[in-house]
Amino acid sequence: MSGGEAKRLVRSPSGLRMVPEQRASRSPFGLDEPPWVPDKECPRCMQCDTKFDFITRKHHCRRCGKCFCDKCCSKKVPLPRMCFVDPVRQCAECALVSQRETEFYDKQLKVLMNGATFFVTLGTSDKSELMVCRLSNNQRYLVLDGDSHYEIEIVQISTVQILTEGFTPGGGNTRAVGMILQYKVPGSEEVTQMKFTAGEDFSCNKKLSAAWLAAMHKATKLLYESRDQ
């Protein structure tokens, strides 16, 4: 479970990317570069319908691959999910999505790697174990350490349900207090379930646990989006 996989700098039509040498080592949250819509298939901007000519040039969004005029595709925004070294040109819609993801990479990913403490219950057992849960540095494993030790490959996770409390019919605030995670055991179709519960005593920082669960919820959304690509 090494976090030091070799990377290489590659140049594509979209820009410079720093990618793992082995595809199997890539982050499970990553996205592949999209194919560009061929120039001959887009005589007009795919957003405002402006006709391209010698003055109005066409540009491709690096996230969706569609063709736009400069006005509709002028933003240069970081796109870490595709491993770009520098901010890249994106259409307005994609730029908003990428900007929202920046918080995950700048803040929530660090929260996941730093870890938090939970009571973990395996399967249908009625016994729980106090464990530190964190995301590995290469983002590919969920590591649980206590008296026992588990490493769950992120790509094997099938479902994540965040458990909350504090909901009221009037729409009161809720806070994350745990999660139920299901994952496949490598080499078989067997599905294992784990329940994570934030501790009630002061030795378990409930605020930190809630932040970790919120970050895990965001990570799950990105993971499912990567699978659906």
From TrEMBL:
The keyword rRNA-binding does not apply. Keywords: Metal-binding, Zinc, Zinc-finger. SMART domains: FYVE. Residues 39-94 form the FYVE-type domain. Gene3D superfamilies: Zinc finger FYVE domain-containing protein 21, C-terminal, Zinc/RING finger domain, C3HC4 (zinc finger). The keyword Zinc applies. GO terms for molecular function: zinc ion binding. Pfam families: FYVE, ZFYVE21_C. Signal peptide: none annotated. Residues 1-30 are annotated as: Disordered. This is ZFY21 protein. It comes from Elachura formosa. The lineage of its organism: Eukaryota, Metazoa, Chordata, Craniata, Vertebrata.
